């Protein structure tokens, strides 16, 4: 029964990670569109998936511990070492699929992170064009009375 519960939890983990990847793909499109409300909804959905993954991971750890009670915190690799034949092949296949999915998810999340970073840089750049920060900012009066530090004007307040 331990093998069946282990493979069942691995299948659930694989399904949840694939679903999480689909959310990441949707997130990429929403980031491109700049739709903050939809992005917030997806982030909430993503959080539900992450919570479920944590719960299923605990189930997987319990199943692995039942399969290998002599090993403290056994991994899937530890379980593969004691399984033979079809059981070994099935668990290996699930493990490889899960690793591939996690890698794809990691790459997609990195892409999303980069897109958000560039979007924020663009927003900062745009804000600086509209309302630039003064170049010279002092807390005391200037020592040279003829020198007037002029605060640069934004593109909308500049003279033509």
Automatic annotation (TrEMBL):
For this protein, the record's InterPro entries field holds: FlgN-like, FlgN-like_sf
Q: Does the keyword ATP-binding apply?
A: no
Show which residues constitute the signal peptide. none
The source's domain of life comes to Bacteria
Gene3D superfamilies named among the record's database cross-references: FlgN-like (1.20.58.300)
Biological process (GO) annotations held by this record are:
bacterial-type flagellum assembly
This protein's UniProt keywords: Bacterial flagellum biogenesis
Quick check: keyword Cytoplasm in the entry? no
Q: What is this protein called?
A: FlgN family protein
What is the organism field in this record? Bacillus methanolicus (strain MGA3 / ATCC 53907)
The organism's lineage?
A: Bacteria, Bacillati, Bacillota, Bacilli, Bacillales
